Amino acid sequence: MRRPQHREEGVNEDANKGRPLPITEAFEDLVFLARRTPGMAQEDMRDAFARLADYRDGAIFIGHYAGNSEWERHGAGDEIVVVIEGETTLFILDGDGEVAHCLSAGRLIVVPRGAWHRFETPRGVKILSVTPQPTDHRVEHPAD
Predict the structure, then answer these.
(1) pLDDT of residue 8
(2) Buried-exposed string 26-52: b where 16+ CB fall within 10 A, e elsewhere
């Protein structure tokens, strides 16, 4: 079975549609990113993430990392986040401030369209997301 590859390797993700995808094997191809930080350059994170397939107005991604992400939001739709292994805390900004959601292996959350959110992952996580595009990013708190 052919494994999904990084977009940079020239794979057409449409070729991954209509057939089973080897998620476990795809994670084996990733390089664990031990110290993710907000504002980290995309090229420094490239080996820790992979795009498995295009989906609707976005894609299905996997990642393997520890550390903290920057704030992000998706104006085109809800995002589905599934923890495959490990744990993370997903903070969603709502009218009352930041709401923390602790997620461990086997848990998922649907992040509402347009909601600013970020991850804190002290020990490491393997994550799968169905993410609409485009994505807005901010290093600073969105309320600032």
Answers:
(1) 43
(2) bbeebeebeebeeebeeeebeebbbbb
